[in-house]
Amino acid sequence: MANLVSEAFSQVRELIMSALGELVADGTFPAEGVPAFNTEIPADPKNGDISTNAAMVCAKSFRNNPRKIAESIVSRIRLDGTYFDKCEVAGPGFINFFYSKAWYAAVVKAVLSESESYGETDLGKGKRALVEFVSANPTGPMHIGNARGGAIGDCLAAVLEKAGYDVEREFYVNDSGNQIEKFGKSLSLRYMQICSDEGQAICSKRLEMDDFCKEIYGEDGNKPGFEMPEDAYRGMDIIEHAKNFFDEYGAVLSGQSEEERRKTLVDYALPKNIEMLHRDLEKYRITFDNWFRESTLHNDGSVKKAIESLKESGYTYEQDGALWFRTTDFGDEKDRVLVRENGIPTYFVPDIAYHYNKLAVRKFDKAINIFGADHHGYIPRLKASMTALGVDASKLDVVIMQMVNLVKNGEKYKLSKRSGKAITLSTLLDEIPIDAARFFFNLREPNSHFDFDLDLAVSNTSQNPVYYVQYAHARICSVIKKLDEEGVKAQPFTAETAQALSAPEELELVKLMATLPNVINEAAKAYDPAKVTKYAVDIATLYHKFYNSCRIKGESEDIMQARLSVSLAVKQVIKNILDMLKITCPESM
Description:
Distance between the termini: 32 Å
Mean pLDDT: 93
Structural class: alpha/beta
Helix content: 40-55%
């Protein structure tokens, strides 16, 4: 796994330390410790490819002018056998290093030889990471927030895999608790409306669903005598489940108890909803390793055990008949209820049991959650519960995701043109390419607000970033195909081949390719896939610039071969990124 930038940085540090060692040994400078110094890539290429402030930080220790120190260091540096052909002093004492053609050759050779593995790192080697994302309420369809969370979570998991982590993707199915109670109540209400004489008469007309709903429930979903409570689910999916059950089984549940009726309807509808979640997510190119059901935590005693363990920790107390968790001991603004007066645990308890399962039972080194911004205050409570249970809370990381606005014709857009209803993940993917959805949702860091331009997402122009990146790949494929038709084949890329590279556009392109492993590491550390999509746009931009400035066909053999190899390397880099993001990589457009 080559990382030519890191290797070059290491060489600079070694060269500096070796030179300082000589200067101390011969008495030029006093035998003082060398303070920590920086090495960095300058913003302006005129200041070298790598720059260091080593001389400047040594000024106090060596009691000398930093520029004179820099000049002394440079006088002792020998660049033979390194990735540099020049180093010089600049400004008040910076030392700037310039890459040799050997370094450019090493970069291109690394990309071409490592092929689809190029960019991989060992940052997370030996560590297991669990990324939990989407985890949409199974009582209804996925919304736009789930669409962004799905793209961020899946691409983050891919970045972590590229960085060497052993990654599992997980969907947490909330199939217990208040939302399931509400789901059953809503289904029962709609079903009983259909079972009424009027409802059955309307059913017999075999109307389309929209017309059926208007006739039986009214324009707004309510009708005198059939009002839905404020705390009930009013979505079309509830109505469809209730009607489908009636169409299959008739009014068989109308004579049963409310409890039995709700259970039967939930057992009928919930699996269909979960199947729909599977189907929609697979369409979105997301496949989960685990579908973890909340109900298992209740059934196997994990919820009860979490309560008992928290009691034993000394961080709980009873007040007004309820059991409280003393989260204020961990910096929370107030304590939180674990078990209500009626003996029923709050939703917080299964979440505690679930995260304990991730870190203490399944022993993941990192448990990463993608949460909406409305869950921000929930994070310290979860971490507090892990600490109270003796688990290292630093292993739990949460990525906060802001909501996204859909924009069409410059205005906020909330309704599907196909159905006239609120846009869900499914309807979004009917209206825009999946490639655009996955790329666009990762264009900004998760914790930033984002306007998703639906018009831009379907456009075939350079303004569309995913199209722009894909076109760069297709353009390279076209170049290779035309050269191949003329019998021009790429030859092995050597240091001699690299000597033909001299144009700023081609050198800049190679330097950017070299940074991919570091970009992967930075994205993995920050839990931010947007760093990768930005890189993809940058590499495409530089290739288009290179294509317009540097001819391949018609040049001398050495230049043609050098530029052909650079093009092949860029093609590989773009493919590696798009494959990682599960975005198609067309060879023609």
